[in-house]
Amino acid sequence: MGIEKYVSSPREIAWSQESVFAKLSNLKNLEQFVSAEKIEEINKKGIDTKGFKMEDFEATEDRCSFTISPVGNVGIEIVEREPFKTIKFQGEKSVPFPVTFWVQLSASDENSCQMRLTLHAELNMMIKMMVGGYLEKGIESLADILAKIDYSPE
Prior knowledge:
Layout: E1 2-7, E2 11-13, H1 17-24, H2 36-44, E3 53-59, E4 63-69, E5 72-82, E6 86-91, E7 99-109, E8 112-123, H3 125-148
Antiparallel strand pairs: 1-8, 2-8, 3-4, 4-5, 5-6, 6-7, 7-8
């Protein structure tokens, strides 16, 4: 088993670092982005989510769980927040392999910021061959999606 690291390229977001942090640091806010309609809307913006299907989403501020193809049942919890810079997530026992994930934010100016995503997954060689490509593509797709959502306060 080895720790594999997948890092997205930086994305410019046209919202303040504080707004992005506020939205992403509360997992209940993510529910509005996972409906079939929202995923189709994302596809229309030119972001490829084909094969991505999420169902049974449930969330609290610190935890969420859902079923995602092709992985299955997944549980995620926020384990650390560093206002307004970093949000660290960890996969719960339902995740098929140990995983940590974080969102890093840095201000470009008062009305925009840069975001980068990092995923560490503990994978054996066979699992890496099976899911490594999905994780690599998935981290970039997720960064694209997060860069295009509305971060206005509710």
